[in-house]
Amino acid sequence: MIGGPGSGKGTQCGKLVEKYGFTHLSTGDLLRNELSSESERSKLIRDIMERGDLVPSGIILELLKEAMLASLSDTKGFLIDGYPQEVKQGEEFGRRIGDPHLVICMDCSADTMTNRLLQRSQSSPCAQDTSTIAKRLEAYYRASIPVIAYYETKTQLHKVNAEGTP
């Protein structure tokens, strides 16, 4: 499941998990869980996120692989939310874990994502301001066009209009 921050990836993954029994792995949740651990890795992740930069693919892939291995014996499949954010991450995932069977792209405007992120930020320990959100969106848009093109040639890719309510 790919899409910008606040595009509704997590919400829709929750619905798909309920209906089909998949294991939902959100890179955002994995990062937040790691941040709460106060490990050395969490300090590195916190510094990167506070700058509004993307967490390096190696760290994300480590977190994903650990979570997948932990759930491997009791799942019907995995819904991976928020990864890859760059083509090289998709290539690395394909080499180390395997290519996805389907990619869903949540498509909505920057205004919609910004409003959702500001609302989420009010109840989150990782509060974000509009400047940080703008940097995250800019990074997403810069990387998303090549990622979408990459998956259009590798597997089934479906775009979903994510402007509306859940």
Automatic annotation (TrEMBL):
Alphabetical list of InterPro entries matching this protein: Adenylat/UMP-CMP_kin, P-loop_NTPase
Gene3D superfamilies membership: P-loop containing nucleotide triphosphate hydrolases
UniProt GO BP: nucleobase-containing compound metabolic process
Top-rank taxon: Eukaryota
Amino-acid biosynthesis in keyword set: no
A molecular-function term among this protein's GO annotations: nucleobase-containing compound kinase activity
Keyword terms, alphabetized: Kinase, Nucleotide-binding, Transferase
Protein family: Belongs to the adenylate kinase family.
Protein name, per record: Adenylate kinase 5
